[in-house]
Amino acid sequence: MKDKTYAAIDIGSNAVRLLIKKYEKDDEQHLKKMLLLRVPLRLGFDVFAKGKVSQKKAENLIRLMKAYRQLMRIYDVDELRACATSAMRDAENGKELIKEIEDKTGIKIEIIAGEEEAKIVYYNHIEYNGAPDGNYLYVDVGGGSTEINLLAHGELQESLSFNIGTVRILTDKVKGDEWTRLNEELTKIASQYKDIVIIGSGGNINKLYKLAKSKNEEDNSFSVNELSRMYHLLKPLSVEERMKKYDLKPDRADVIIPASEIFLTVASLTGAQKIVVPVIGVADGIIDGLFEADRDDKGEG
Predict the structure, then answer these.
(1) Pairing relationship of beta strands 146-152 and 79-84 according to DSSP bridges
(2) Which of 6, 120, 171, 264 counts the most CB atoms within 10 A of its CB?
């Protein structure tokens, strides 16, 4: 493969990210991060409460896509994939908005299903070289949904998506049957796979790992007990108190509580005692998928 620069745009329910990575054939690292930007547009607060993206946030999203387009030109991006997830899936004006974005910026956005989002998250295993013989749950907690991938003995066994996310919880828009389905699916997994380790992705688990006092920096992990301790310290505080005491941004200080609750629920249902946090997310998975497709085309890997 020749040198190539990839870009991923992840339009989530809480934030919109641009990630740019470069493949250099002479670099053992292979994919080198060039740029990561995160803008908290918080589309989900509109969509889950009102059913659509407001005019103001739609205009801001278009402005942001224009800015991202210019940055991709500066970095000489060769290949882009832009994906919109839970909020845009639910928005009445989602398809209309992505057509307007394509007309005004040239960026074609895919509104992907939850199952596709789960598979994208799975591609992160390319960058995370965990022990192949273990049982792992890749858990990506977003604003609108949670994606869970089961990896056993190095093989993907199952990809699941649940309409349970941090913004959806804060707006009280999670349906009861989704929690029931999560309980049933994870209970079934726990009965078949033992000694499960969670691999967490998303900004909230990354922040919780950084805040944790007790952690293993050799493999970027901390215990479920430590996560529970952090949760019980954070939950009684107001958003403003969390911001001040733990140096959290406003758009992190509110969603970090429901994110903790989701991870703790997954751990409780599966018996997991450990969470590995390799600092990867949907955008990384998008680029890893593009990279793997190129390798397959070239007969590498």
Answers:
(1) unpaired
(2) 120
